[in-house]
Amino acid sequence: MLKVDFKLVKCALLAVSISFLASNANADMFGHGEAKYDDIHDFKKWKEVVKKAEMDEIVNGPITQKWHADIAKIGAMGLTREQKIAAVNDYMNKSIIYAEDIDVWGVTDYWTSPTEVLAKGYGDCEDYAIAKYYSLKQLGFNDEDMRIVVLKDTRKNELHAILVINENGTNYVLDNQNPNVMADSQIAYYQPIYSINEHNWWKHS
Predict the structure, then answer these.
(1) 137: buried, middle or exposed (CB in 10 Å: 19+, 13-18, 0-12)?
(2) Which domain holds residue 171?
């Protein structure tokens, strides 16, 4: 597992270009229409992640404790909310090495809790997104403002997953493929398919 030097994080935030630009608070994600639904019962992999994350908190093993301590350090840096979002994106992008599920878990699609992926040190796109989701929750961000987004990357013609958080009306993208946090309005190559949090899911058109 990669280690993160927190003495460098705050300095890195000053050097990294973070595109927190104003946008229309009512704009749909990536400019695509969306329909909101309440029942997330059929999203079994996501429901299993929620259960595993709850159990990890109860067990509170050394990996979970270290993760919480690392995120608490970010929270204690005196950062703005936007800088905290950027710091979590940077922390997880550096803490996890990208690898396909088949190589890590022996199956084609497996969604991990933060503790699982940090214990392995390897994960794919949705694992980064999930870990960022729960890290921002720890920092006090409202889970209703966040979504795991499954989408098509039109540059590569393949599926991808990211975390989007709505902060003051702007949808910000936390992406393992990009060190910078960007507004969704700045990204033309992502076509959202569906997005989800612990309360709702959205179908995008």
Answers:
(1) middle
(2) 6-204
Collapsing DSSP states into helix, strand and coil, what is residue 195? strand
- The torsion angles phi and psi of 168, rounded to 5 degrees, stand at 55, 40
Instruction: State the Cα–Cα distance between residues 5 and 94, nearest whole angstrom.
Output: 10
Residue 75 belongs to domain with CATH number: 3.10.620.30
Helix (H) or strand (E) holding 153: strand 146-153
Mean pLDDT split into 10-residue runs, the chain, 205 residues: 42 43 54 95 97 97 98 98 98 98 97 98 98 98 98 97 96 97 96 97 95
pTM summary value: 0.88
Beta bridge partners of 172: 165, 183
